[in-house]
Write a structure and sequence with these properties.
The structure is a single chain. This protein is an alpha/beta fold. It has 2 domains: 4-31 and 167-230, Pantoate--beta-alanine Ligase, Chain: A,domain 2; 40-163 and 233-275, 3-Layer(aba) Sandwich (Rossmann fold). The chain is built from 8 helices and 12 strands. Strands 4-3-2-5-6-12-11 form a 7-stranded mixed beta sheet, sandwiched between helices. The chain is globular.
Length: 276
């Protein structure tokens, strides 16, 4: 799904033709600030990683590391974290947050989750908090998981964490709009409108983002972003792990290790796998 603009709905198609509107890739520019504001404080999964991994020093690879929500606490625990992300803007926010005493424990890597080359073998690889959704193509998921196996130590562990879609998400086949407002540190207001629609045939959530920057001098800037998220089923993830050479150690519906059941109403899925 390289040509994401095909997923703009009719209104966003009209917006994309206006001179005052700029098309921005996901996880870049203003989108990164929204990501950091929305995701930055969530800690449930971070505590799970800290408990599971324990104290350092271990070498950890975090895929889709974002703005440091997980990497910084792991570095504080004594680990060396290789923070892999393909967005310079994500890395910029991450490194601006890192305290001076932790600079040598967080190593930013600009690369795709499906194509990276690191001269290190890791004790843990983390694909956390719905990051697997960004692997929208089956080939991407296979490439990513095979690379994880390649770079994981023999006794290492692969941690995957995601939230299963709700029944309301799956019923959202017509599409709906959501509105939010963020005030930046510079005192600017940013309005965000998100259109999302679930495509049941392709098992993807189609996302159209509109950001409107309102400057102090009343100047306005418009940015739109197309994005797609793929929602794998629990069965798909099990098959993917096994086909890529992993053995599942934990398949849980929460961070306490409660075994996942197919008819479970809980939406969290927490997985720990090792090389088979």
């Amino acid at each position: 799904m390289r040509d994401l603009e095909q997923f703009f709905n009719s209104e966003f198609q009209k917006l994309s033709k206006l001179d005052c509107v700029q098309i921005v890739p996901d996880y870049q520019g203003r989108n990164v600030e929204f990501y950091d504001a929305i995701q930055g404080e969530y800690q449930e999964d971070v505590q799970f990683y800290l408990n599971k991994i324990g104290k350092g020093p271990l070498k950890i690879l975090e895929l889709g590391s974002g703005t440091g929500r997980t990497a910084i606490p792991l570095a504080k625990a004594g680990h060396t974290v290789y923070a892999l992300d393909n967005s310079d803007d994500m890395h910029n926010i991450l490194m601006a947050k890192v305290p001076t005493e932790l600079k040598n424990r967080i190593i930013p890597i600009k690369a795709s989750m499906t194509d990276f080359n690191i001269d290190v073998r890791f004790d843990y690889v983390i694909l956390g908090l719905n990051t697997i959704f960004a692997l929208a193509e089956e080939d991407d998921r296979i490439r990513c998981f095979k690379l994880v196996r390649k770079y994981l130590k023999g006794e290492g562990r692969f941690l995957v964490d995601l939230m299963l879609p709700s029944p309301e998400d799956l019923k959202n086949t017509k599409g709906k709009y959501e509105l939010s407002v963020m005030e930046t540190e510079e005192g600017k207001n940013c309005l965000s409108v998100v259109f999302n629609r679930y495509d049941a045939k392709r098992q993807i959530m189609i996302l159209n983002y509109l950001s409107i920057d309102m400057e102090k001098d009343d100047k306005v800037k418009f940015f739109i972003t197309p994005a797609v998220e793929y929602y794998p089923s629990p069965g798909e993830i099990k098959l993917l792990l096994r086909n890529c050479g992993f053995e599942i150690e934990l398949f849980s519906c929460d961070y306490e290790g409660t075994p996942f059941e197919d008819d479970d109403t809980k939406r969290d899925l927490v997985i720990c796998a090792r090389i088979a």
